[in-house]
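Listing S7. Sequence submitted for prediction.
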Amino acid sequence: MLLSGLASAAAATVVAIPGIGYLAAAACRKLKDQVDWVNLGPVDEFPENETRLKTFVNPLGQPWDGITANTGVYVRYLGRQSFEHQFQVFAINCTHLGCPVEWFPQSGLFMCPCHGGVYYANGDHASGPPPRGLYHCEWRVNSANQLEIQAPHLPTLQRTLRADQPVRG
């Protein structure tokens, strides 16, 4: 009788563990989907039609990320249209293999030092192996006139940074 009860309890535990694991993973996933906004500074710090690199510590990083949690975006202020500020904010990662691209204002091009990817000033693909243009970040100007971006994860062709960007399956 006692052995039968222990066997039943063991069987119930074995059956319950995957369910508990599933619920814990869903709870963790929900926390990860929380949107973090990163303040890049006052809008006045971005001269019109100039591209600037802004670096920050990504809030999506983990304590063990160390210096790799420091990342950046390229910000280009396009001025105002209908009283609204307009920006282009690009992830720093090349769309080929994720290497950080560099901005060359003399030529008006972004270039990837890893495999020779080249992008125009508006982020469109110009030449080289990248399959598409630079990834655009979600941005907003808050009530204090500060530019904010959604904390960027490492973008991929399947998981871009904005919902309106094309996705490849």
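Caption to Listing S7: primary sequence and predicted structure tokens for the chain studied. The chain has a mean pLDDT of 86. The first strand starts at residue 37 and ends at 42.
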